[in-house]
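dude i think i finally got it to work??
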Amino acid sequence: MFDIGSFRARTCGTTGRRSFLRLAGSVPLALGLSPLAAMSVEPRRPRAKSVIFVFLWGAPSHLDTCDPKPDAPSEYRGPFSSIATRTPGLFFTELLPRIAQRSDRFSIIRSHATTEPGHPDAGTAALTGFKELPGPVQPNFGSIVAKHRSQHGGLPAFISLARGVVMDSGRRIEGYGGGTLSQAYDPLLAGCSAEGGVDIPALRLMDGLNPLRVRDRAKLVEQLDDVPRALDRLGFDSWNRNFQSAYDLLLNPVARQAFDLTRESEATRARYGYTVFGQSSLLARRLVEAGVPYVQLNYSRHPEAINPGFEFGWDTHLYNFELLQDQHCPILDRAFSALLDDLHDHGLTDQTLVVMMGEFGRTPRISANSSRDHWPPCYFSIWSGGGVQPGRVIGASDKLGEYPTSAPIPPLMVGTTIAELAGLDTQTRVEMNVLNGGHVIDGLL
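look at this
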């Protein structure tokens, strides 16, 4: 199901070219080949056809999830026990048993660090690899992949799953979209309810239009053509790129089907869990199966954990242990393990890179409020599929979980590694003028 306007409807059934051309005349001679033979060499294909970036907006506590410190003093270690995973020497807390039992399918990094202490600034750094200030704001990793891949099969190349732009109260993450690449590469925004109803904000101006009741394609096109005239009457000079993407999506039945979670069995939907994040995770799998190059799967739209009216995030300044135990970790454990299983069962693991992380960690020392606050110097990420070697533990934190004991891995290295696995080699990145100065996380590949 997805919403169009105010109603719900069930849908129906790399080597850079310039570099290569410059070298083509000289390399054949060195190898003893003719120029014609050399021209038959094909560019390297991307290891990851699609990327799912699971953004744990609000920043989960690393000590209470994937980097426990059972031997630390009580004011650090927290109340949760440690459990073994399938990776020798790797322990998670008892809150993530399903993910722990799938550690042979992913690798974990425990030595991330960022310089930004607040949510919006750290969010921009997490999604672009660069600080928000001084500007200009750099493009989201998804926008970079989207420009490189362009449009595929009627579906946008970059889709962000949240009910609107990811925000901290009234302030959005500036690095949510195209940045220096222009708004043309902003993501299509799509929200998903706990029941699996999909809402595409860019279609809300189409009140009264139900393409599924119009069996004649020509009649549907005629109705859609009325939309820009309606926008003109409302004072809009031109269509937003996202609106155009949504418009194109309506005309493509295969693309529309990708958003219809009712096509999945009840058993599959229940396996993910009937939560916003659970059903959004299932939608992410359907989108990459349909060929979308980059999906940003947001745990929530807002980081705040307890503010009324917000989708709860991981910003647990209060009730950290209660929220992790009763809400966040059970939801994440169920949905993320189902996503890994589902990608494997559909034969999508090798071609889909999955990266899960927040914008920073949380204070190892428990606060006066019996919770944990922001902690930029140390946090974790999980990587699976798409060319990543599974079962590895990269980096480590000290005995209290305060600082990395190895070289810190900043957000820029995250984006560079994603781009490399998605087929954007060094030459391509230079030509696009993105991720400048970035290095690949070698231990993953």
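The longest helix spans residues 320-345.
im so relieved honestly
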